[in-house]
Design brief:
Layout (H helix, E strand, L loop, with lengths): L1 H14 L9 H23 L3 H7 L12 E6 L4 H9 L1 H6 L5 E6 L3 H9 L5 E5 H9 L5 E8 L7 E4 L14 E4 L4 H12 L8 E4 L2 H10 L4 E3 L4 H8 L2 E5 L1 H5 L3 H4 L2 E5 L1 H6 L1 H20 L1 H12 L3 H11 L2 E4 L3 H16 L23
Parallel strand pairs: 1-2, 6-7, 6-8
Antiparallel strand pairs: 3-10, 4-10, 4-11, 5-8, 5-9
Helix pairs in contact: 1-2, 4-14, 4-15, 6-7, 15-16
Length: 368
C-alpha cells in the first residue's frame, strides 16, 4: 500500500515538471528531497491508525488495588483482645467468604512488632504507645488506627523482691532497673522517678525482654523490674515479690490516657484496604465486649493461650478492668505527646516529634 502511494506521488511530480522551477542542481536536489519527504509524511499518515483520537475517547484505566489473599496479623502477650480474637477464630470466619486467610506472628513487645510491620511481616498489630514514639522518631512507617483503653492499673507495677531493701521509688536511685526498651514501662519509670524528684539518669536502666528479665530478676541480677500482665502474674506466682508503684499511684485517674495502648496498621494497608481495617476493628471491639461480660470465660481461654494456671489468669482478668477500643482522638494523642516530649528532653529519642502528624494516625469521621 505504501509503495503504491509513493510511486503515484512521484509520477505526479514528473507529470507537472515541478522541478523545472529550480535552475540550480543543488536547489533541485533539495527541492526533490523536500517534496518527497512531504509526500511520504502524508502517505504514512494516511496509513497509520488514529491512535490520538482513540486515546481521547478511550476510558481511563484506574490502577487496581493489590488483591489481598493473606492477612498478616501481629500479637503479643498482654494484648488480651488480639489473643482472644486469635483463639476464637472469629476474624478468620468473617474473612473466609472473601477468600482471605489469616496468619499470626507473635512479638515480645511493641518495638519489635512495629519493626516487623515496617519490614512487611505484618499489616496489623497492637501494643503500648511508647513503642510508636520510638518508631516515629526513627522514621519507621506505621499508622495508629485505634486507641486501647483499660480501667485496670494494678497489672503494670514496679516489682522488687519481697525481702528487698527497696521500699519506695525514691530508693531506686543508683539501682539496676529492668524493662523492655520502647515499652509502656519505659515511660512509666520516667514518670515514677519524676514524681519523687529523681530523673532517668539517677537509675541504671537495663533493657531486657520479659523472657530475659524473669530469670535475671530471680537471680538477683537486677534490683527492680517493670512489667505488665500476664508476665506480672507469672512473676508473682514464681517469686515472692512486692509492688512499690503502679499506674494508679503514678498517674492517678489519668492512667489510661497517660500511658495509652494503640492498634497499628501499615500505611499501605490503611491506604488500600480500609474496608478490611474496619472489619478487624469491629471484631476486636466484639472481643472486648465479650471479655468484659465474661470474665471467667475470658480467663479460661487466655489461661490456655498463655499456658498459665486458671487461678492466676483469673486474677489477671479481674484486675484488667473494662477494656475499650476507641478511635484515635486528641486526648489520647495529647498524652502520647507528653511522653514523646519527655523522651526527647532526656535524649532517649533522637529528635522532637509531633505524634499528631496525620501520616502516623488514622482518625475516621465516624466509628467503624
Amino acid at each position: 500500500m505504501l509503495n503504491r502511494l509513493v510511486n503515484q506521488f512521484l509520477a505526479w511530480i514528473n507529470q507537472r515538471s515541478l522541478l523545472k522551477f529550480t535552475k540550480q542542481p543543488g536547489i533541485q536536489a533539495f527541492t526533490l528531497l523536500f517534496v518527497i519527504g512531504l509526500g511520504l509524511s502524508f502517505a504514512i499518515a494516511s496509513c497509520t491508525p488514529n491512535n490520538a483520537a482513540n486515546s481521547v475517547t478511550a476510558p481511563k484505566q484506574e490502577p487496581q488495588k493489590n488483591q489481598l489473599t493473606v492477612l498478616k496479623m501481629g500479637h503479643q502477650k498482654g494484648v488480651a483482645l488480639l489473643n482472644i480474637l486469635k483463639a476464637q477464630g472469629t476474624l478468620e470466619k468473617r474473612l473466609k467468604p472473601q477468600g482471605i486467610s489469616v496468619t499470626w506472628n507473635e512479638f515480645s513487645s511493641t518495638a519489635p512488632l512495629l519493626d516487623g510491620m515496617g519490614a512487611g511481616a505484618i499489616v496489623f498489630g497492637a501494643g503500648g504507645g511508647t513503642g510508636s514514639v520510638f518508631a516515629q522518631a526513627g522514621d519507621k512507617p506505621f499508622v495508629r488506627v485505634a486507641a486501647s483503653l483499660s480501667s485496670g492499673t494494678k497489672g503494670s507495677p514496679i516489682l522488687v523482691k519481697e525481702n528487698s531493701p527497696i521500699k519506695t521509688v525514691a530508693d531506686l536511685k543508683g539501682k539496676k532497673v529492668a524493662f523492655a526498651k520502647g515499652s509502656g514501662q519505659h515511660y512509666i519509670i520516667v514518670r515514677a522517678l519524676e514524681k519523687v524528684g529523681l530523673t532517668y539518669n539517677d537509675i541504671k536502666p537495663v533493657f531486657l525482654t520479659p523472657a530475659e528479665a524473669l530469670p535475671a530478676f530471680e537471680r538477683g541480677d537486677i534490683d527492680a523490674w517493670l512489667i505488665w500482665d500476664p508476665y506480672t502474674a507469672q512473676a508473682e506466682q514464681k517469686i515472692r515479690t512486692r509492688s512499690i508503684a503502679d499506674n494508679g499511684t503514678i498517674f492517678g485517674d489519668k492512667a489510661a490516657i497517660e500511658s495509652p495502648g494503640f492498634y497499628y496498621a501499615s500505611q499501605d494497608f490503611v491506604r488500600d484496604h480500609l474496608d478490611l481495617l474496619k472489619i478487624i476493628l469491629q471484631e476486636v471491639e466484639k472481643a472486648a465486649e465479650w471479655s468484659n461480660k465474661n470474665t471467667n470465660d475470658s480467663a479460661k481461654l487466655l489461661s490456655k493461650v498463655y499456658k498459665i494456671d486458671l487461678a492466676t489468669m483469673q486474677t489477671v482478668e479481674e484486675r484488667a478492668g473494662t477494656r475499650e477500643v476507641v478511635p484515635v482522638n486528641d486526648e489520647s494523642l495529647s498524652g502520647l505527646q507528653r511522653m514523646a516530649d519527655a523522651f526527647y528532653k532526656l535524649k532517649v529519642i533522637p529528635k522532637k516529634i509531633d505524634v499528631k502528624d496525620k501520616n502516623f494516625n488514622w482518625i475516621p469521621d465516624q466509628k467503624w
